[in-house]
């Protein structure tokens, strides 16, 4: 309602209080960051995402942050977020996603390095066959 009445600072104060009181409810963070982005205040949207990432949320939050940076052609910032993401959510699919991101940006050596780091990270016991398959397909192309 505050947004409809152009009371932006009041809306910010409300969102800030909400995410402070209920930091584990992702929907509030999404809406707060979306509001800032919609207003064209990308630095504030980044600050909201950064505060949120301190709580180490689930992967969708990280991917939303990465997508926002890519909308503004901030590849280096997206890469930096990916680096934190794979440590907070160290699942095979996230490492593969990161490597594919680098490949899609034309950074083939970076993609290869990520695949290699993933194999070291998971070791022989924790390595998922999906990682081997993705790495092999990457090397074939």
UniProtKB/TrEMBL annotation:
Q: Name one GO cellular component term.
A: Prp19 complex
Coarsely, its chief localization is nucleus
Q: Where in the cell is it found?
A: Nucleus
Give an example GO biological process. Answer: spliceosomal complex assembly
* The entry's keywords: mRNA processing, mRNA splicing, Nucleus, Repeat
In this record, what's one Pfam family? HAT
According to its UniProt record, which protein family does this protein belong to?
Answer: Belongs to the crooked-neck family.
This chain's protein is named Uncharacterized protein
Q: Which organism is it from?
A: Amphimedon queenslandica
